[in-house]
Amino acid sequence: MSSSSKCEIPLTVNGEKYSVIARQADTLLFVLRNHLGLTGAKPGCLNGDCGACTVLMDKTPIKSCMILAIEAIGKSVTTIEGLRDAPIQRAFVEHFAFQCGYCTPGFIMNAHALVESTPNASEPIIEKWLESNVCRCTSYFEIEQAVKSVLAEKQASKD
Amino acid sequence: MIGKSVIRKEAWDKVTGRAKYTHDKLQQGMLHAHLVTSPYAHALIHEIHFEKALSVPGVRAVVTGKGLPLTGEDLRDRPPIAFDKVRYHGEVVAIVVADTPIQAEKGANLVQIVYEPLPTVGSPRAALQADAPLIHENLGSYEKNDHTYPEPNTNIAHRTKIRKGNMEKGWSESEVVIETSVAFSPSDHLAMETRCATAEIFPDGRIEITASTQSPFMIKKLISTYFGEDVGKVVVHTPLVGGGYGGKAPVQLELLAYLASKAVRGRKVSVWNTREQDMITSPVHIGMEATVKLGCTKDGMIKAAEILFLFDGGAYSDKAIDVTRAAAVDCTGPYRIENVWCDSLCIYTNHPYASPFRSFGHCEQAFAIERAMDILAEKLGMDKLELRLKNAILPGHTTPTRVLLNRSNVGNLPACIKRLRELIQWDQWQRIELNARTVRAKGVSCSWKTSTIDTEASSGAIVTFNPDGSVNLMSGVVEIGTGSKTVLAQILAGKLKMDIDDIHVKMDIDTQSTPEHWKTVASRGTFMGGRAVLNAAEDAIRQLKAIAACVLRSPIEDLEVGYGKVFVRDDPAIFIPIKDIAYGYKYPNGNAIGGQIIGRGNYTLRHLTPLDKETGAGKPGPEWTVCAHAVEIEFDKRDCTYQILKAVSVVDVGEVLNWKAAIGQIIGAMSMGLSFASRETFLFDRYERVLNPQIRTYQPIRFGEHPEYIADFIKTPQIDAPYGARGAGEHGLIGIPAALANALSIAAGVPLNKLPLFPEQIWRAQKGK
Ligand code: FES
Ligand code: FES
User: Fold this and answer.
1) Domains (ranges, CATH) in chain A?
2) Do B542 and B624 belong to one domain?
């Protein structure tokens, strides 16, 4: 079978089951955007360099331009559209952590996974996580503030 | 309302992934284009074969440049698709249109082009050599506007001259003279949303374009000018834009989408840049080489400035001409200098062509001037801030283009310098050796900027009322991320004395129903757009009062509007809710008067004039925003690496309309300036091909590499501006590259006059390599 032959791909996205007919060579990003109409994840470089396409696969942030849709079979994919009132979303709004908003879905998904998986993240850990995303509008300082505010809330509610 | 950190209107759309940008609007049946681009920077095109491409299933058309008119905003030098020759690496040579993006790409890979490479021109100075290859042989025959002066049989697309005072006198009064040269190559805006556009042509001739642009109204105008289409039949839609920074001011892909749609009998075609194309095929951040000579008295009063800006406009002049003109307008930096000679040249090279970059020629120009100021201070043995303060531009002085400054049209630079001095503890230390290896140093700079825009540029606004008394706001200002639409809503809410939540902002632009705003550039959104909104509000207030006067049986003059009511001035208990008259008023017996309230307003900057060809005299913009900047770094002497610890900008903004949004604009701009100055550049091979058109090799600043940012404001009102607010979207950036270079020069002990400041660059400067 060639990479351009189509096949049926069962996907679970934002808790809902889909069946998509797509090429085996299609990336997850392409299928999310062009088949499911989930355009929150953005095509910033299609090369793994910018993080604008970040989604979660089984709670781990991945660059959806770098994996094939067929690799997501059997996994649970969460896109920005699947977040409902996540604390990180409000924090981004309150801290003015975006301007044009194009990098925002990717940043939020990555930051969301960070605060959920590593609520006690130290400064170097935050850096390691978030350096995979590029923002051209903000100074990153606002994003840092937003992420830290959610981590602080998590700490406070634990204590 | 004014000054509050109102949350931007589109905030929740943006954090939930619901905000739609141009390329998010997929449509069934839409065709996709793939651009075939040149692998050479300068070559003749002998043959183009696209039969194989046409045989790919799904490919519907291949468009080439044959028979197309030349384009360009000031000078028509650019074929929208290269035809007889290519002039830069990445230039569009053909467009393949197909059912899917993949088929289009397949087709594009099969287009065969026979080139004959030509010798290339790799820098402005090389372009000026007598034996340099000519990039535009027909420069003399190109159509141009009245204020563009190409020099045929050279590579000079335009020259702006500033001649002020008497140079001979200036030099004779100068006891200390320095001369210095700086340089940097073109780089990129790198907006996270790559440029894209769709076009569809209807049987009645209507052309619908959707584009990620800062200039929807310009697209409409240019498609009409270039291709003879009726301007009223061109409708441009612009949804949210994913970053512009000047890079989306030029009109390029829109023309290609239009041509592609034409080739498939008007079907909708989408043109979308890959990141690689967006970096080199579409316009880039201009490069520059410059020489600055300054003369001053022993006590530091500057008497003369001779400035030569050689801008690398790349293969086509398009918006670069304007950028080089703007650099000339403010060529001296924010200093009083009576005797000025400046030539600012827009030069053709075989590099990707240039467009505005946040600050429009100013961070480039400031890099040259502010390096020179530091070198002058060193030669004088004078404190670097002191020298700047001593020569600071003030009301009563004139600008290089001889505009007389007053308290309103220029901000307070001494106040900015004073505040900066405190914020960075300048008087405590400027350079300290922490140990044998590590040095800390502070660099400073000052900057200023006016907007150089078309003298007749105007902005319009419409406000309409809903039956519940809430208001819809339509303005042609594009939401490119700066939050201008929200600030306009704040201005409207302030004027109508109503809750910001009751103002509904139309985010998308539709040139058929949105009033024109010239271009969303030059930090002019709140000044011009704001004045238009205020006028529209006045108009609505007049209409509300007229109806209320009948109902309340009161003279119009005695009425006030606010808090959702029209009320009698001296007895607010007598009032009518706006909601009862927003659609006219209905008397109990069924009679009705008035109708929906529709307020309209527009604004054009007054008394602007073009620059004189020989002397540059003229008034290009309404006001000057002034700033002072500082950067603190820690430098490792052993390997020339460094860390940026702190960056500070003090901007005289006149008034802050939205606190957090304003801070965000300033520090976002500072971040971009640091990224540009420390690490961003295109790397060219010896054939002038770009080696790093990818984010992984171009390497902008990432999260975690950011220093501490401090933004602070001085408030000297501009009396014509809404609430006195000056433009500030770009100003955080202007002096930052220079401040970084100044700090590193102090730390490394050698003048660093080339950007970006890679450690290798510093090492080379130290070793004289
Ligand atoms: S689009 Fe996936 S990392 Fe840039
Ligand atoms: S908000 Fe524009 S790129 Fe991050």
Assistant:
1) 6-81 (3.10.20.30), 85-158 (1.10.150.120)
2) no
